[in-house]
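Reading a protein record of the kind used here takes little practice once its layout is understood. Each number in the token line that follows is a code from a learned vocabulary of backbone shapes. One such record is shown here in full, so that the layout can be seen directly:
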Amino acid sequence: MDTAASRLARPAFLVCAGAMVAHEVDAALRAEWRLLYGLRSLQDEIAASAFVLLHLPLCVAISHLVAHPDGTVRVRARAAFSAFAVVHAGLHWRLRDDPLSDFSSPASVACIAAGAIGGLAWFAANALARRDGRRTDVARRAVPR
């Protein structure tokens, strides 16, 4: 029998991931590369292209790992991504007064906060499921092919 906690992990992660994808669209519109070491010293046109193109292999790798058939790989990737979403929100909070930061709109704040809340909910669901002796859908190993 599944518990509410074990059923919450997957939707919590999907909220986290979806919010982070939406944030990255917003980040491209708001020139987030101006905050990033390595890109902020480049001309805007070059930095913008690099920012977008660097997301391609990053998104491919993340998508592969968080949906990996091996449950151990999948759960670790989702844990890392969820932790990043929480830390990422903290970084945006820290940079909120930086003149180069333009993430104060309600949509920007909502995406960043939803990513962190989804990540925290994923950790909470996994912790509660483990406490109850259950495994969430992300902790099951795939059947070998």
